[in-house]
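Recall the central idea of this unit: under ordinary conditions, the amino acid sequence of a chain determines the structure it adopts. In this exercise we apply that idea directly, starting from the sequence alone.
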Amino acid sequence: MQIYWTKINEIIEETPEIKTYMLDCPEGFTWEEGSHTHFALEGFNAGDKPNRSLIRHMSISTLPHESSIGITTRIREQCSEFKSILRNLEVGQEVAIFKTHSNVPLKREDKNVYLLSSGVGLATFRPLVLDYFERVDNVNQIHSLNIDSSKDFLFTNIFESAPDRAFTSQFVDNRKDYYEEVKKLAADKEGLFYVVGSDEFLVQNIEVLHEQGIDPEQIMLDKHEQELPEFLNTK
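Accordingly, the structure predicted from this sequence is:
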């Protein structure tokens, strides 16, 4: 396993609670839209065993041509040891990334694509939308629906409806409105539904989609292949 140590080159305050850490691209490091990586802090591999409290599974919120690896995360006032250390890191300090993989690349199957996310889960979808804007081939249209009770919505400059590009974006701040919208979107029985958020959020969305007649094969989750049956009730 190759561990890439790299420096923070910029810290962007997206909202009062959400920051994006822009990292230098190490030589030989590649990724695609929808990728996640293991993001680790200094000292995580200092002992005999990795210190898992200093490692997090994070989505990459940028595309390779943006020349930096973006890690977007919410840091609340009361937070874990990992987030507490992260909050105090500065430009020029080093972090590690390793085991990078994409479970949710943009499928180009001449269908409508629906991106369902909660809060900072939208960071996973930012590269998919940018990839679509650059090349619309074999995607009918994309609709993004995000719920964030803080009302500090993320990436509003990108997640802005653009009818000329067959892209629509919705933000809601409560569950009732969110799930009503999911039901409406599920009227498209041929659509592809991408879901990103907490495990509880995934389960609730899958239940609603199943009730509306959406098949497991139409639901894309940011999970390893071996984890999918647990969520999608497939064998």
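The radius of gyration is 18 Å.
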